[in-house]
């Protein structure tokens, strides 16, 4: 067994380190510790809010490239998959806002999936909004209580979809 694991988002150097560490045929002197790129960020129990991210950055292409190991085609594919998923999220958010008895669990599931997707695409405000919403919902907030953030999420998804065209058409 092992008690070692890489956390999401998985970074290639960290994954290699874990694999080398647990391979019995590896010389232990050659293993160096690699910290994930996000280790320098201060840890916080409460996720970053949309207000404390850069307000003018819709897509941080350098962050997207970093997540894709500087492979532009992969970064574009990841962004395209995010854009393809957004209509499904919009539909769920619309239903959640319109129906008083909409399933919080379904909303949490979709927001969690969008949060994960946005982690790989260099969309800091969208990622932050998802983190805020997911945290609030998992903490017991009602859909009515997070309505303003849901409207922000709708606006941000439109901005990301519109801005993504500039990167995907290149």
From TrEMBL:
Residues 71-170 form the HPt domain. One of its GO terms (molecular function) is protein histidine kinase activity. It is an enzyme of class 2 (transferase). InterPro entries: HPT_dom_sf, Sig_transdc_His_kin_Hpt_dom. Coiled coil: none annotated. GO terms for biological process: phosphorelay signal transduction system. This is Two-component sensor histidine kinase BarA. The lineage of its organism: Bacteria, Pseudomonadati, Pseudomonadota, Gammaproteobacteria, Vibrionales. Its EC number is 2.7.13.3. The modification Phosphohistidine is found at residue 112. It holds the Pfam family Hpt. It comes from Vibrio alginolyticus. It comes from the Bacteria. SMART domains: HPT.
